[in-house]
Amino acid sequence: MDSQKESNEDSPFIRVHQISNGNQREEIHNFTIENREKPTQETAWKSIYIGGLCSFIQTTQFTIFFPSMWPYILTVQLCFLFDIFLYLLYFQLQPDLKQSSFGIVVASYSFTQCIFSPLFGYWSNKIGQVRFPMIVGFIIMAFGNVVYLSLQYWPAYHLYVMMFSRLIAGAGSGNVSLLRAYASTASLSKDRSKAIACVSGGIAIGSMIGPGLQLLFTPLGADGITVLGLKLDIYTAPALLCLVINTIGLMIVQFAFVENHIQLVDQNAGNEEEEEEKKKKLMNPCMIAISVCIFTRFTQQFINTTIESIDAAYAMMMFSFEKEEAVAMNATMHTISGAIAAALYLCFIFTGVRNIKNRIYTVISLAIPLAWILSTYPYNFYSNHVKMMGNGSDADCDFNKYTWCSDLTTVPIWAYYAGFILVFGISFSIMNITNTTLFSKVVGPRPQGTYQGIYQMAGSFGRMIAPLLMSTTYTFFGPRIPWLILIVNFVSVIAAWIVLREKMVPFEKYEAKRIQPTLQFSR
Q: Which regions span the lipid bilayer (predicted)?
């Protein structure tokens, strides 16, 4: 019964109402699904599953570096020109250039991803295929990982090379928006939410599993081993793994990925010009609902990258972890969260659990991280304070460098890491399903490449802004101000969902609401 209801709600029928000279005429256009090469009425599940695997590979090679990047920066001296750049950039007020440089390095990946996402989309539309741009993206990402692996040979220009490698990898990952667009054009309307969930699930699981893979290299330590003149340690070995992953992804796209686009064709249209005219009559989607979904995506990626950017430094300062301990704990939490996220996505994709109320569960998934942020704010009524950093150690807080260390209280470690698992393992998994699915339904039965590209850009913009803004505020004011920024952000987006809840509906319901007043007026 549920599947029949879902099929009826999402069936590709477009109802067009015309009013001319006071006479109302109602036309019902029956749209059928057709492959560009041959007619088909089946969702291309094989290629969509492969697309989900490719999205997992892309996201994994991005997030695997986060647990070790900050400790890696601590092991080297900033080059002179980079010192000057940061000194001028922050108006000679920055007390910790390394923390700021870390934020810039993290943001560089999202900067080029934000630029190249629409470029890949335009290129894909221009040549009429997804496969070749995907291959090019994997090659670019592989080159970026080769540059990262070569950091050990550039000690005097360490941060320049690290930034350059992340810029290159970010440019290659711009093709990830093609996967969501492909999922929307390779699936029937009734299968759209499940198809997009496959790609979104791959992205979300990759963001959780990626940092957890760092555990594989923890036994290497900072000294590592040397193989054929190449030093592999806890900091550089992830780049080698990413090369292997990129190669696997490239081979999958080259030999296993077969495009099977599905598009809407009007059976009542007599020729191509008439068909295009019919398509133009489909009204625009609700831009308010689209904006709320995009704002939600930005907020999710903003907090996600904030935690990724400062988590290692935060844990070393708040919980007295050394570098290696912070890397291991971060990786462990991501592994646990990733396992939970994977179970939720598999349950959603392969069972009937996916029939959930998108609006309600999105608000719930937004409330969980808000509760986590509120519970881990360093309130003054906490009795314990952060410890002073000792000589030769990177753990604890440097009272000589940061004035805010003196009155900063410590939060319960169990509250921080239990909430971490709830947010990144459960909350964001639900949000990736509900918000992305509702966004696709709000857009409606039309090509979604442009809309999905904008959706991807919103997440990339959040990833770009977060490390720059939050690393700076963390350096100046400690964790209190970044936490307040996150609280304001989440309160705003939750309020938007509640106030505008009547707008957050699929395109068919939005269209019906817009048409009904017109019918009543004409009568």
A: 69-90, 102-123, 135-154, 160-183, 195-217, 237-258, 327-348, 360-379, 414-433, 454-477, 483-500
406: amino acid identity, one letter: S
What's the half-sphere exposure (Cβ side, CA atoms, 13 Å) at 439?
31
Domains and CATH numbers, the chain: 42-80+98-262 (1.20.1250.20), 279-522 (1.20.1250.20)
Cα torsion 425, 47, 238, 225: sign: positive
pLDDT digits (tens, 9 = 90+) for 136-145: 999 998 898 8
DSSP 8-state class, residue 388: B
Q: Above pLDDT 70, what percent of the chain?
A: 76
User: Could you please report the per-residue DSSP string of 193-251?
Assistant: HHHHHHHHHHHHHHHHHHHHGGGGGGGGTTT-EEETTEEE-TTTHHHHHHHHHHHHHHH
Tokens found for residue 133 = 């741009």
> Which DSSP string do the residues of 406-432 spell out, in sequence order?
GGPBPPPHHHHHHHHHIIIIIIHHHHH
**What is the DSSP annotation of 79-143?**
PHHHHHHHHHHTTT--S-HHHHHHHHHHHHHHHHHHHHHHHHHHHHHHHT-SHHHHHHHHHHHHH
pLDDT by residue (tens digit) across 116-175?
A: 887 887 788 778 788 888 899 999 988 988 998 888 787 777 777 888 888 898 888 888
- Distance (Å, rounded) from C-alpha 36 to C-alpha 54? 23
Average pLDDT along the chain: 76
Amino acid at 436: T
Residue 416: band (very low, low, confident or very high) from pLDDT cuts 50, 70, 90: very high
User: Of 106, 172, 188, whose CA–CA distance to 139 is shortest?
Assistant: 172
The SS3 call for residue 258 is coil
* Ramachandran class of 22: left when φ > 0, alpha when ψ lies in -120 to 50, beta otherwise: left
49, 198 Cβ separation under 8 angstroms: yes
**Does residue 340 register a pLDDT over 90?**
no
User: What angle is formed at CA 273 by the lines to CA 272 and CA 276, rounded to 5 degrees?
Assistant: 85
Give the Cβ contact number of residue 368 at 10 Å.
Answer: 18
Angle between helices 287-318 and 480-499 (to 10 degrees): 160
Spatial distance between the Cα atoms of 334 and 214, rounded to a whole number of angstroms: 10
Return the structure tokens found at 267: 């059976």
Q: Which amino acid is at 324?
A: E
Token pair, residue 146, equals: 């080769």
Q: What is the mean pLDDT of residues 231-254?
A: 86
